[in-house]
Design a protein that fits this description.
Layout (H helix, E strand, L loop, with lengths): L9 H9 L4 E6 L5 H15 L5 E6 L2 H12 L2 H4 L6 E2 L6 E4 L2 E7 L3 H8 L3 E6 L7 H10 E11 L7 H5 L19 E6 L9 H10 L2 H7 L17 H4 E3 L6 E10 L6 E9 L12 E9 L1 H4 L5 H12 L16 E4 L4 H11 L4 E2 L4 H13 L3 E5 L10 H6 L7 H5 L11 H12 L1 H4 L8
Parallel strand pairs: 1-7, 1-8, 2-5, 2-6, 6-7, 9-15, 10-13, 12-15, 13-14
Antiparallel strand pairs: 3-4, 4-5, 10-11, 11-12
């Protein structure tokens, strides 16, 4: 498109040449160059298309669209002079791409599906297709006007995932020779780490370290494999925890995040961003779960009302959660609560003037994100010490080794954890996922 763009690999150039089908999909490893190739194809389409209707970009949320789609498009180091003709503000309903209005939809937002139902679509770009609900994707296909095209990316998922079974398995080169129900108007290209000419060997090695077990096979090897066994199969308390007394200075406490329970435990964790620097004095922050509060009515032999639970939580929240070697008594910027805990949120607001945010409860996405952070050493969990046995996150640490995939869900193509002893893990997941747009400005991982 312009000689100021980054150079493209032979695989990327081949996909651009062939991306003339109704549906065009780039799949494979993370950071393999598939997103850049798909975005170039999308820009060419936006610049040349005359089909009737609206242009749309779809991602899991509008924030993820800003991060995964528009951040690369607006980066002059990637798209050269073209980047100045693309603008988007995270959370906005639409972007401007090469002078054209492009609607931006978050597939997890029910309002987006309502918008989609009334839309005549001239062209669509879809980020991470497997994170969409099947009925949303089906509706999107139905909204494509004659002559319209869809450009999409995805990482591998379960081999029984609806997208693999209903679509990819009916495309070259995935379909069986005897499969007569082919999709002739689809084109699919599979990418691996070595197909990205911008990745150094050091960066490839980092990506391999940041993905383990299931996520290594999918995100690095590009395999469509089923989830089975331990979720955090890499878990090592020696590597992934730190004594509470040894916590580094925190630049801020990013969030209090809480999983609400009545008969089950209620668990709240504090997520901090460290003020660490590297050997050259450059900022090198990490995320830390610095402290945890739990109320288990069975262990305590006392079932609390929402009002009583709120009083105990607020009393704990007002304690000091960082060791004496830190200089500030910090308070969390966000209070993130389990979306199902409506009555508890009312109590916090009415009686304690605490306004909370509903947690992002995309379970699989949150698990993948938290696993990548922990395995990369970018998220560390504080453990109690003999001098401070009431501090740290013993619930999270005790639950992590037994966190396993549900084999019944795997059989139907879903990745779900067993709902056993996961309350601190859920609370932690809420904090990491809901604040992702904030900590991503400090911390870079492959997820």
């Amino acid at each position: 498109m312009t000689d100021t763009m980054i150079p493209l690999s032979p695989k990327q150039l081949q996909s651009l040449k062939e991306a003339t089908a109704r549906i065009n999909v780039w799949e494979g490893s993370v950071r393999s160059g598939k997103t850049i190739a798909s975005l170039v194809a999308w820009l060419i389409y936006v610049a040349t298309n005359k089909t009737r209707g609206e242009l749309i970009v779809v991602s899991r949320t509008r924030d993820s669209a800003a991060r995964n789609v528009f951040a690369p498009l607006m980066d002059p180091s990637l798209f050269g002079e073209i980047s100045q003709y693309i603008s988007y503000t995270s959370g906005s309903a639409y972007a401007t791409v090469l002078g054209r209005r492009v609607w931006v939809l978050g597939s997890s937002d029910v309002r987006s599906e309502n918008v989609l139902r009334g839309l005549t679509c001239a062209g669509a770009y879809v980020d991470e297709i497997t994170l969409l609900k099947e009925d949303f994707f089906t509706q999107l296909l139905n909204r494509l006007w004659e002559g319209a095209r869809l450009f999409g990316t995805t990482n591998p998922d379960s081999p029984a995932h609806w997208f693999k079974v209903n679509y990819l398995d009916r495309c070259e080169p995935y379909m069986e020779a005897t499969n007569a129900r082919v999709l002739p108007d689809w084109r699919v290209w599979k990418f691996y780490l070595d197909d990205n000419p911008q990745l150094t060997e050091a960066r490839k090695d980092a990506i391999r370290r940041e993905n383990t077990g299931l996520f290594f096979r999918r995100n690095v090897n590009g395999e469509w494999v089923a989830a089975e066994g331990a979720i955090f199969d890499f878990w090592d308390p020696e590597k992934h925890t730190i004594a509470w007394d040894d916590l580094p200075e925190m630049r801020e406490l990013l969030a209090l995040s809480l999983d609400y329970g009545t008969t089950n435990p209620t668990a709240a964790l504090l997520l901090g961003v460290s003020a660490e620097v590297d050997h050259l004095g450059r900022p090198a922050p990490r995320l830390f779960f610095v402290d945890e509060w739990r109320w288990d009515s069975k262990l305590e032999q006392a079932k609390l009302t929402d009002a009583e639970l709120a009083v105990k939580l607020v009393a704990w929240l007002n304690e000091r959660h960082l060791p004496d070697n830190t200089t500030m008594k910090l308070t969390p910027r966000f209070k993130i609560i389990d979306p199902s805990a409506a009555s508890f949120k009312v109590q916090l607001r009415k009686n304690h003037d605490i306004t909370s945010t509903d947690a992002d409860n995309d379970v699989l996405y949150g698990i993948r994100l938290m696993a990548s952070l922990i395995s990369a050493g970018a998220l560390v969990i504080a453990r109690p010490t003999p001098t401070n046995p009431e501090r740290g996150c013993p619930g999270f640490i005790s639950e992590a080794p037994g966190y396993v995939w549900d084999p019944k869900a795997t059989l139907v193509g879903e990745d779900k954890p067993m709902k056993v002893a996961d309350h601190s893990l859920d609370g932690g997941r809420y904090g990491v996922t809901t604040t992702e747009n904030v900590w991503r400005s400090y911390i870079k991982i492959a997820a």
